[in-house]
Specification:
Elements lengths: L5 H14 L3 E5 L3 H14 L3 E5 L1 H8 L6 H15 L7 E5 L11 H13 L8 E4 L6 H17 L3 E6 L4 E3 L2 E3 L9 H11 L7 E5 L18 H14 L7 E4 L7 H9 L2 E6 L1 H17 L1 H4 L9 H4 L1 H23 L8
Parallel strand pairs: 1-2, 1-10, 2-3, 3-4, 4-5, 5-8, 8-9, 9-10
Antiparallel strand pairs: 6-7
Helix pairs in contact: 2-13, 3-4, 6-7, 10-13
Length: about 350
């Protein structure tokens, strides 16, 4: 199916929230990982979200070039074309964009979509993230408030991070400490600045102990019940439905099914997945190489086996392994078998 229209994307998120599931949002960095996500979502009968970070966009542009806006546009162009071959619907999103990357990443992409929309088309990306977790909350929200009208004008959705996700992802790094937990006051400040949809739609990555990457059990203490407490506090203050905010779950690798289920029950409609799919892809490549070392290497004057060192041979194995992890994510989040395509 073609990439989701703005209306389809909004309907996806509304449906997830009203019926109690979330969409997995997969970070990609190559055509192979895009295809793996599309394969996995198709096998799971699930719609979903494909996203790219600043580092992923740099890589798409060519690792010696590092033109992230061009790389992101290349990612989107490829995804828009190949997605037509799959019977599911996906939306495109740009992930973590810190303050020093705005002018070289998100802003040029918004401008490109503005031109597309002016010509009667749909935005190139259906949502963009502004990651203000490294600046004071007031500044974070002021920047979000400036970006939101442009996002609304192209009929896209803004994602903001309110709080701090620990660990490191593409150069955005935070310590693991008490700052990993968003407060109700933080959420109220967000609503006061951005509204509840009247100034443009946004998703909020509230933090409840989230950490990027993989950590041994006991090192990370998730409190997904905090999301429910914040939603209830906002509902009481503003007289809205029980879950006023559309929430995003960052740093979910290694989370238990119960933690994920609680987060989704409290309004999470999108969960980012990166580390687990990276490992699934690379583990399959490693398995192929170790199992066929004498065929993929020209050892002792031999010639190897072209059929096994051909990048397509191990690439298919890697894509299929990653696709299986993609399908697993849809089961965890409840989107399995729920494609509307």
């Amino acid at each position: 199916m073609p990439i989701a229209t703005p209306e389809q994307y909004a309907e996806m998120l509304d449906r997830a929230k009203s019926t109690g599931f979330a969409y997995p949002a997969f970070n990609v960095s190559s055509s192979q990982t895009i295809n793996a996500v599309l394969q996995g979502l198709t096998e799971a009968g699930s719609d979903g979200i494909i996203q790219v970070t600043t580092g992923g966009a740099d890589y798409f542009a060519g690792h010696t070039v590092k033109n992230r806006a061009a790389g992101a546009l290349a990612f989107a162009a490829f995804a828009h074309e190949v997605a037509k071959n799959y019977p599911i619907t996906v939306a495109l999103h740009t992930d973590h964009c810190p303050k020093d990357a705005l002018d070289g990443f998100v802003m040029p992409l918004i401008a490109a979509s503005e031109e597309r929309v002016k010509d009667g088309g749909n935005p190139i990306f259906q949502s963009h993230m502004w990651d203000g977790s490294a600046v004071p909350l007031d500044e974070n929200l002021e920047i979000a408030k400036e970006i939101l009208p442009r996002i609304k004008a192209i009929n896209a959705i803004l994602e903001v991070e309110i709080g701090v996700v620990g660990g490191e992802e593409d150069g955005v790094s935070h310590d693991i400490n008490e700052h990993l937990y968003t407060t109700l006051d933080d959420a109220i400040a967000t609503v006061e600045a951005l509204g509840l949809g009247d100034h443009g739609r946004y998703m909020a990555a509230l933090t409840f102990g989230n950490v990027h990457g993989v950590y041994k059990p006991g090192n990370v203490k998730l409190k997904p019940e905090l999301l429910g407490e914040i939603q209830a506090g906002l509902a009481a203050k503003y007289g809205t439905g029980e879950k006023p905010l559309d929430l995003v779950f960052h740093g979910g690798s290694g989370s238990t099914d119960e933690e994920i289920s609680t987060a989704v029950a409290n309004g999470v409609v999108k969960m980012n997945i990166d580390t687990d799919t990276q490992y699934a892809f690379t583990r399959a490549v490693a398995g192929h190489m170790f199992s066929n070392w004498d065929a993929v290497l020209k050892v002792d004057g031999e010639v190897g086996n072209k059929k096994l060192y051909d990048p397509r041979a191990w690439g298919k194995v890697a894509e299929t392994a990653m696709a299986a992890r993609v399908a697993d994510a849809t089961r965890q989040l409840g989107s399995y078998g729920k494609s509307q395509s």
